[in-house]
Design goal:
Structural class: mainly beta
Largest sheet: 6 strands, antiparallel, barrel
CATH topology of the largest domain: Thrombin, subunit H
CATH class of the largest domain: Mainly Beta
Radius of gyration: 17 Å
Number of strands: 18
Number of domains: 2
Strand order of the largest sheet: 1-2-3-7-6-5
Distance between the termini: 20 Å
CATH architecture of the largest domain: Beta Barrel
Order of helices and strands: HEEEEEEEHEEEEEEEEEHEE
Strand content: 35-45%
Number of helices: 3
Length: 269
């Protein structure tokens, strides 16, 4: 959830990471198909199980990647809000063309997400770009699950395991719950904010890359700390993701965010 992870240096494509697999228009979870490059972050096309081909597509990135700046602690942004635009990538990381839309929901309270509805439908994107959105999982990853982190901004894919589920992750004035800590192989870099975190076998999107402790500091911006019943812990160099299963429970008519749904647990204004 940090500015360090929004863009920064190195320039896109120059950071270490697993190269995108060039295996077809959508292919396995190990390529960049389905990702969208924003001006300063990574993002992805996501499709809830209830969505229809004729529904306008959803785009997912971090709350701190909101086009008008990060939400304040406790703030929840709803409604047809700020415009957002990005470039759809091929499996190999080539820009296929633009998508535009408006933010439906954004917050950094308990989570770190921005959900936007695009002007294009899933059918439009499939016809124009030969790209399928990532299926949005209704359950989060478990410790030991094999995952891939796909960054459109950096044109890189990291492979590792979800090492642990963290009850509370604190970074400055922001707090996330049930965050995912990566194993060390997912050494995400600046520009990877908002990257899709997908199940390595099914391609389902289970989380969105959020932050990392870069300097070993405790509970500061760019240096999140873990808090549980045993106290506070710092894992220097480890990256974290925000779970996204709660989004699936809040999808309403027309592929929008409906915070009034009984099963919806996303933070509300």
């Amino acid at each position: 959830m940090v500015d360090f992870f929004r863009d920064g240096t190195p320039a896109k494509g120059s950071c270490p990471g697993f190269p995108a697999e060039q295996t077809g228009p959508s292919g396995p979870a190990g390529n960049l198909a389905g990702t969208v490059r924003l001006p300063n972050c990574s993002a992805s096309l996501v499709r809830p199980r209830t969505a229809r081909d004729e529904d306008k597509a959803l785009l997912l990135t971090n709350g701190h990647c909101h086009p008008e700046g990060r939400p304040k602690p406790g703030e929840v942004i709803t409604g047809q809000g700020a415009p957002i635009e990005g470039s759809v990538l091929s499996a190999a990381g080539r820009e296929l063309g633009p998508v535009t839309g408006r933010v439906l929901y954004a917050t950094m309270t308990g989570t770190d997400i921005t959900v936007a509805q695009l002007d294009s439908t899933y059918a439009d994107i499939r016809q124009k770009y030969k790209i399928e959105a990532f299926p949005l999982a209704s359950t989060g990853p478990v410790a030991g699950q094999k995952i891939k982190v796909a960054s459109s901004f950096l044109e890189s894919v990291w492979s590792c395991q979800a090492e642990a589920v963290i009850p509370t992750l604190k970074e400055g004035d922001y707090t996330s719950t049930q965050a995912i800590r990566y194993a060390k192989e997912c050494n995400t870099q600046p520009g990877s904010s908002g990257s899709a975190v997908v199940d390595a076998e099914t391609r389902e999107l289970v989380a969105v890359n959020s932050t990392s402790n870069r300097d070993g500091k405790e509970c500061e911006l760019n240096n999140p700390c873990e808090i549980d019943e045993t106290g506070t812990t710092v894992h220097q160099g480890r990256g974290y993701a925000t779970q996204t299963a709660a989004i699936a429970a809040c999808i309403g008519t027309g592929n929008t965010i409906d915070l009034k749904r009984q099963e919806c647990t996303l933070p509300k204004p």
